[in-house]
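Note to self: the last two entries modelled the partners one at a time, which told us nothing about the interface. This time every component goes in together.
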Amino acid sequence: MNFRESLRVSFRSIQTNKLRSFLTMLGIIIGVSAVIAMVSIGEGASANVASQINGLGSNLLIVTPGQARQGQISLGAGSLNTLTLADAEAIGKNDSIAGVAPSLTSRAQLVWRNQNYSTSLEGTTDAFPQVRNTEVQQGRFFSHVEVTAQSNVAVVGTEVVANLFGDSRFNPVGQTIQLNKIPFQIIGVLKSQGSSGMTNNDDKVLIPITTAMNRVTGSKNVGSIYVSAASADVLPQAQFDVQNTLRAQHNLRPQAADDFQIRSQSEILSTAQGVTSVMTTLLSGIAAISLVVGGIGIMNIMLVSVTERTREIGIRKAIGATRWDILRQFLIESVTLSLLGGGMGILIGAGAAFLIGKATGMAISISLPPIIYAFLSSMAVGVLFGVYPARKAAQLKPIDALRYE
Amino acid sequence: MKAVIRIEELKKQYRIGDQEIQALRGVNLQIDEGDFAAIMGPSGSGKSTMMNVLGCLDKPTSGEFYLDDEPISEADDDELAAIRNRKIGFVFQNFNLLPRTSAVENVELPLLYAGISAKERRERAVRALESVGLGNRLYNKPNELSGGQQQRVSIARALVNNPLILLADEPTGALDTKTSVEIMQIFQQLNEAGKTIILVTHEPDIAQYAKRLIRFRDGQIVSNELVSQRRWANPEEVGR
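The predicted structure of the combined assembly is written out below.
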């Protein structure tokens, strides 16, 4: 009996018991489809995060205040306020540094005529477009002079335009708005960047950092300093220079720890990817468990099938089927079940991921490797859990099987 | 005349629980090519065990069994499967056809395990069914056929591989008198054409259609002689 005949016999047996076969496959269908859907969503999200991080700017270093410690207990990143505008200026004097954009973030209440809108506020300098890799799409960014003069000028994101002026096509350049009850003139609109995860990069207002510190928040320190290195080659040198400059600025003794943190874009990226890999491992675990459960279901139904078809096995053996013929027939049947389940699971999972992407606007990445893994593992499950029932069938004695009622 | 089956001092014992059962206690038998033997005996006489051994479904405990001059006693399970496939055609009391499978596919089954191509399988299966008068029932499933038709399908299946011997275990046991005679007519025609047939039955009437009558009792052959008044099957006479 050749492979094709065995396959035909298996399909017929599955067809005869449609509902039962479907219920048997259900375990594998659910497992595989859940994993495919989650992997597609997860991969889409992590690709999105990676592109957002890359979009932060090229050759970027981010300096944040250090963590306050009490004994061995960290009080968390940013629990110290150690960075100042003077630090940022000093960093900018190194040759390895192309630009420095200190940043101070807060919330702001914007009012234009009778419209009222709450958004996030970021104080920065004229280096922002270069360091953070962004442009204005209308008007202009604020100048060095305006930063020094603590001017009341603002650059807004497209989301702010849409919400405050009621129309995203409205040109707000030249309009005066109230920012926390202080009048500001809008001089530019930032080019849209889209959202990364839960943060909408277009929903913010930028003002000179001096204005932000002295007129809006009253803060003496900056929240973080974005530094762009002159080139990718000098990035390690730049990181070293930033560290030395800040240690000198902060009068740290040689044995004292840094009171700031410098992270590069690639570090942030690898952190994000670390999260993804943890998620992948978890998903694989879930997949393995659901496949084992599905496999047990298949084994169960194959054992029932062998008992039900004892007489058929007897007839086939009497007529000349060898043990291998019988073993193969039942093995192909269990593998067919598991592969059908795996295939359906892949389709349902990919479909679900696609629909979720459509409905929520999340990025979805349906890639080939997880589909291939899902397919191969369902096949392995079919073989693994099919061997025992198939062996049982193959070892039946023809006279006993023929006599079975 | 060539001996198709030679059996010498064949013994078979079973163990059921702690009870030893001597099913066959030293059987000697020779069946020649073209013979038509009926095996009779009360239940427990060993005739069914004999049939299983002859059909290579069961191995004897001791003794020699030559089928077509091949020693069977030492063959392993897969060799026995191959022998059953090529040399033996089975006809059972309860037909033993695969359910939900058309007549022609049932008949193809032995050829499938013999590794014959799909096209040749179909041709030979159709010819075998035509030879038992079922050329118009090729695609009917067993539950769409009468008992007599089912038994004829199973005869076609037994014949399709052109086996050395035809083994029929109570082939008329589940059929009415007229259909039984029809089946016996097919057997007689096959035997006239040269096929060796061994038939197990407990009906003396049916045994009358064979050439030779072998009686079993207590695991031994008690008589082995030619049928004195052989009958020729004629379904037209039945029920008149």
